[in-house]
Specification:
Blueprint: H1 25-45, H2 56-80, H3 82-87, H4 94-115, H5 122-151, H6 158-182, H7 188-212, H8 223-247
């Protein structure tokens, strides 16, 4: 180690200069600090993996969890007070209504597929056709409610109609789920009874949705006749779809 004061060369790690006697430890500590400083700066500037921004998959998972939580709270309100929840539903609740309608259609198709499993109906006849039938029934029923509500001068938005009818269709979906459970006990009579009441509940729900809309002026059609019109329309559609499915006719082709 060279002394910075007199230039004398000393042994490495010497405490003081052998010529002038001045301390050499201050210089050694300074060199060590200069050596360690870039490393510390590099360590600070390098972000840790935990500090990296979350990816898109994490964002999708967070949105899915939030939606599931909101729908769970929605179901709790519906089963406690279905009519009150439907009356207070607005266009902002359309997503929950769509989910309930989708569950009703999916559960209906799965239940039909399970009930016909012994007949080896196949994917198309056993699942796909019932799914398309129930989607068509719910879609036309929803459209019928909206049109009749317009005739009553209620002027509801289509989103609000979806929210209200979707809210009450949760009860129909629950009945379909119960009917599928009865298949585990080979109780055919209870199965068909619950399936019938699930569709009847959907028609009754349509009536309550019509009543929940308030006319802005004198209605062009009375509420009583409006309810009869919607129920009759849905009954005819459901009867035609079921009859066509059982007889094996290509009923769906007539709607496209």
């Amino acid at each position: 180690m060279i002394c910075p004061y007199c230039g004398q060369e000393n042994e490495e790690h010497a405490a003081a200069c052998s010529r002038c006697g001045r301390s050499l430890q201050i210089q050694e500590e300074g060199e060590m600090n200069e050596t360690n400083e870039p490393t510390q700066q590099q360590t600070v500037s390098t972000p840790s993996p935990a500090q990296k921004a979350p990816g898109k998959s994490d964002q999708y998972i967070a949105v899915a969890k939030k939606s599931a939580s909101n729908y769970g709270q929605f179901l709790s309100r519906v089963f406690k007070a279905p009519l009150t929840t439907a009356q207070s539903s607005t266009s902002a609740d359309m997503v929950n209504g769509i989910i309930s309608l989708a569950l009703l259609c999916l559960l209906f198709a799965v239940t039909i597929a399970v009930s016909f499993a012994d007949f080896d109906a196949g994917f198309v006849d056993g699942f796909l056709k019932p799914l398309l039938n129930i989607i068509l029934f719910c879609g036309l029923g929803l459209l019928g409610v909206w049109v009749v509500a317009i005739l009553q001068n209620a002027a509801p938005s289509f989103q609000e109609t979806v929210a209200k009818l979707g809210t009450l269709s949760t009860i129909s979906a629950a009945l379909v789920l119960l009917s599928m459970i009865t298949l585990l006990f080979d109780n055919g009579s209870l199965f068909y009874t619950l399936m019938f009441f699930s569709m009847l509940t959907f028609m009754i729900a349509s009536s309550f949705v019509l009543v929940s809309f308030k006319s802005t002026s004198s209605p062009r059609i009375d509420y009583f006749y409006g309810i009869l019109l919607v129920v009759l329309f849905e009954f005819v559609i459901f009867n035609q779809l079921i009859s066509g499915y059982i007889s094996g006719s290509e009923l769906l082709n007539s709607f496209y």
